[in-house]
Amino acid sequence: MTRVRLVTVNILNDRRAPTRWEERRPLLADGLRQLAPDLIALQEVRLPDRRAHWLAEQLGDYSVHVCPKTGSWAAHEGIAILSRLSVEEHATLDLRTQSRVAQLVRVNVAGRDFGLANGHFFWWTGDHPERVKQIRLLLDWLREWPEDVPLAVCGDFNAEPYTTSIRLMRERFASAYALVHGREPEYTAPAPLQRPVHPLQRLVVGVMSVIANRTLTPWRGTLDYIFVNGSVRVQECHVVLNEPAPHDPTLYPSDHFGLAATLELN
Q1: How far apart are CA 69 and CA 93, in angstroms?
Q2: Which of 25, 124, 204, 226 could form a disulfide with 176 if both were Cys (CB 3.0 to 4.6 A apart)?
Q3: Whole-number Å distance between alpha carbons of 96 and 158
Q4: Given a cut of 60, is residue 222 above it in pLDDT?
Q5: Mean pLDDT along residues 99-111
């Protein structure tokens, strides 16, 4: 049986506030090294300092496939896939709003094709029609992928399990975590990473928490997913990169937890 080990994680880039990257990055690299995935899907990759390439250098033997955002964000941020497998093809998709993008790689796994799509979608609390449009664009784009060829779709969907966007994904794909556990994780974002935040940002987050949860309690929810088509069997899937630094309980690899899955290609 052919297996693929996959990790997806949003590694946090904020042009407006410090993100403690220099402190966090050893935790991120060490965690990924222990997981030893074949494929790593990254979101919020800061481009000027080549963060995806830095991770690949720390881990060793990964090729890097970057997809920059569009418009004014193109020089600052993107998404990326790191691969220990031979990448035969890399395609990108403009999601048209909020400079968002998705990417797709076709890799060779022991002589067989496997596809991995990675995306970072429209940010807004709850349902939003622009995110629904982006998901429809993604699904239309992936319609050309043969149903009998294994495919996984992952990333930061910025959408909780009850939203229209995730319902649309489930019409074509199955959630790897839900297949194994019968439900989605309690939450994948935000992790309890403490970092300096501008007062205006704090106010916006507080207002969004009141709108979403009708409470002043800081919001947290499930935004990150790994979906698979019918040619993939999920052997295991769990939340990863969710432990703080031993010396600092406020320091995490990112403000999102990651998801790891071992997939069997039918």
Answers
A1: 10
A2: 226
A3: 16
A4: yes
A5: 97
